[in-house]
Amino acid sequence: MQKRRFNLPPLDLIQGFEAAARNLSFTKAAEELFITQSAVSRQIRALEEHLSVALFERRHRALVLTEQGRILQRAATELLERLQEVTDRLRSAGATRQLTVTTTNGFASLWLIPRLRGFTGLQPDVDVRISATYKSINLERSLVDVAVRLCE
Questions:
Q1: Predicted confidence band at 125 (pLDDT cuts at 50, 70, 90)?
Q2: Do 38 and 87 share a domain, yes or no?
Q3: pTM of the full predicted structure?
């Protein structure tokens, strides 16, 4: 049997490009992907180098897709949507995962909870449970996956 070799860019570059192309903004793509704007910029540069084409025209305060960028955007969107469908189908066959986070009331309300919608959108099969308290806990004995505390 003959091996099939794909010469494709890494998936994270495709995801970064798709978000930037859809939003026409590296900043909005970065917020959506929970990475920095410079990381999105590096992903786009790496993808353009991999493909040897310009995907965006960078104008003053505007980002415009080139013709090659529009072609790739359609393909990337279809690819990611199909991959998401398959991933969702496979995950639905498995058990729901749980993530338990303990932190302070202030950190939970001001930072963590406002970002949960984005996380649960990316990880719909993860049941996030938050324990907001100022009490000390024994991490070795508690059933906590992540603990965030300010220590002096």
A1: confident
A2: yes
A3: 0.63
Residue 16 counted as domain residue: yes
Residue 42: what residue type? R
- Rounded CA-CA distance 86/15 in Å is 16
- Token pair belonging to 64: 């415009």
29 within 8 A of 23, measured Cβ to Cβ: yes
Residues 111, 40 within the same domain: no
Q: Give dist(CA 151, CA 59) in Å, integer.
A: 46
Residues 88 and 135 in one domain: no
At 41, which CATH number? 1.10.10.10
Q: Read off the pLDDT of residues 82-97 as tens digits, 9 standing for 90 and up.
A: 998 888 777 666 666 7
| Cα gap 16→35, rounded to integer Å | 10
**Dihedral (CA of 117, 70, 82, 1) sign:** negative
67: containing domain: 11-92
CB 101 within 8 A of CB 133: no
Helices 11-23 and 37-51, packing angle to 10 deg: 110
Q: What is the tens place of the pLDDT at every residue in 3-59?
A: 778 899 999 999 999 999 999 999 999 999 999 999 999 999 999 999 999 999 999
